Model the fold of this input.
Amino acid sequence: MFTKFKFVLPLFFVSLLWASACSLLPSGISPSGSAKKIVAYLADSLGVDSCLVGQSLPASSLPPSADSLIQAQFPQDSIVSITEFVLVGYTSYQVSLASGTQLLFDDQGALVVAGNPSTLLDDSDAKAFAKALLAQHFPGLDLDDLEDVSVKLDSLGGFSVSGEWDDDLYMTFTFSGNSVCYEYDIKHGKKKKDDDDCDDDDDDCDDDHEHGGTDFYNCGQDSLPASVDSLILAEYGSKYSIDKVFCDSLCDGTDGFWVELKGRHGAKPNEYWLFFDLAGQWLVEVTEYKDDDDLPNVIEDSFDNEFPGDEIEESFEWQWIGGDLAYLVEGETTEGNNDDDEYMALFADDGTLLCVWEEEWLDGQDD
Done:
């Protein structure tokens, strides 16, 4: 029977891998540890918008040396799938075995890394496995600052590797079927006040006003799925153009893109904010109320009950596409606070408070 195999990392080959991988790319585009540069590198320089898609191959298509290695080292295991990935002329073969072991070969059939995600519980093992795996799939990606790595199985038979870069970028790469998809969470902007900074007399630390931060990043129009541009043109025509695109997430954790539209030729309203998920599905349309009286009384009453003493600065109509109407309120905490705190509160149409986050979303972050 097959004996569980922890993982094998041919270190001499990894050194060669880095040298050969970077030589295939234009000089100077390997990213630094900056969160924005890493995301831009994947999307813009490597052309991997959110998923690297491979092609399924029969066992006969493996390079002979890879096939020989599998037969010699895993004689009682069987091949479940073989996927060929090609990126900037750089070919990799990922082999999944029935035991759960994952093997990654280069275009010559040399083994880059092998491991069973279910056994990679030690962080150093997981980190070595993840770095070799990601270096092969995304040549030139700067992995020097990759920390807190975890490798996990998922319910669909795939696995994921997650890690943090330099305290400001958390990324998860999911390997499922013929695709390697990445999601990211960039820590940006205001931070929630630490409990250690609070005392019993500090109104700013009241639980009702301790609003959590939001992950927010100006990611550029080229980060959008191609279908989004076509949808915006079809729905809004030539009267509106894309002004800014922000990578963010909704209250329920759905990652995606806020697209700010600016009106042309006197179009009314003069601005829209649209939210799309990472697959390009349109989820939300937001418009601003120019008159405070437009906000329903039930929402004003709910705001006063939830945030007594606070003020409404601006209000917005939040339309779930194909669903219910909601209301977004920009609130300001002034009582007992010299530095006015602003936040966004989302209410259902019956006045139920859905969530609260720090006010950055409509500020037009350009950094």
Summary: DSSP finds six helices and 20 strands in the chain. The chain has a mean pLDDT of 77. The longest strand covers residues 240-249. Residues 133 and 343 are 41 Å apart (CA to CA).
